[in-house]
Amino acid sequence: MSPKAPELRQDLLWGQLHALTVIAQLGSFTKAAQRLGLSKAAISQRISELERSMGVTLVARTTRSVRLSEAGLRLVEDTEASFAHISRTLNATRDAVGQARGLLRVTVPVALGRQHIAPALHAFFKQYPEIRIELDLSDRLVALAQEGFDLALRHCSAPPDSHVAVKLCGSRALLVASPSYLKQATPITHPQALSEHACLPYLRPGPAVWLFEHQAAGDEPQRLRVPVQGPLRASNSEILRDAALDGLGLTLLPDFSAAPALQSGALVEVLPDWRPVGFFGDAIYAVYPWTSHTPRPLRLLIDHLRQVLAAGFLLER
């Protein structure tokens, strides 16, 4: 005969139940602890307390994974909508009065974040001193809800239709090289010539191939694939930009990485009549999970970034 479960003190279990729903969303005690601002040990204790009170195992723990039991899944399914509603109500009430405050977890591509987003936050914090931001710089595609992020800035052509996406500005790719490289190299009048030059491709699986599009007046766009090779491939546009600045070869860069060097003349656009396509995105988007109430701090940050980035990165073609 199994021991009788202790009498439920429901008023003491709300924090434990909430912790269980967050673990279910994130699939990790560590990530749940980060989301809730607690230690991993505190999260583990809350789940143990909840299991003792319910008299059933709710979470199956291994060294590599966290999996909810059938009882745990059923409990989360029945309660997470209520916690989400409470959270929206609290946020809406707090947003309606007083200074905007709260924590925003934001993920941004490395080069974009270092060069443009982080500097843009200085003015934002002066205007909204009670808002805090955790800025994650990563080029990987983050799953927002599962990893506890409130906002992602995405450099893409088609934002996910499962999320809310706000276009911040347009963006384009450019083929660039330093004046010193172009001075000593054979002239480049057509993309096919790139196969004979030192090129600095972005590091992606498979052979390096650049795709260009040419649009003549009244004609159908002409597309051309050019295999390229050179002394360096890298997964970061800042590294490729610096290599091009050093005269190592030609590279494709997003405009936000190339803009300062182009404006100073340290880099020169090559083959401006041929547009690089299919490599970098056409725009910068602010992407966040759908919600019936967008928290005020999130709205304010997106509005600020729209103003900062409204002109894009290159003032003229």
Supply database-style keywords.
317 residues; alpha+beta; 10 helices; 14 strands
Structural features, described:
It is built from ten helices and 14 strands. The chain is α+β, with helices and mostly antiparallel strands and 317 residues long. The strands form four sheets. Strands 4-3-5-14-6 form a five-stranded mixed β-sheet, with helices on one face. Helix 1 packs across helix 2, helix 1 crosses helix 3 and helix 1 packs across helix 4.
Structural class: alpha+beta
Order of helices and strands: HHHEEHEHEHEEEHEEEHEHEEEH
Largest sheet: 5 strands, mixed
Give the strand line-up of the largest sheet: 4-3-5-14-6
Helix percent reads 25-40%
Task: Tell me the number of strands.
Answer: 14
Task: Name the average pLDDT.
Answer: 87
Q: What form results from the Cα inertia axes?
A: elongated
Q: Cα distance, first to last residue?
A: 79 Å
Helical segment tally?
10
Fraction of residues in β-strands: 15-25%
- Poorly predicted runs: none
Radius of gyration over C-alpha positions, nearest whole angstrom: 25 Å
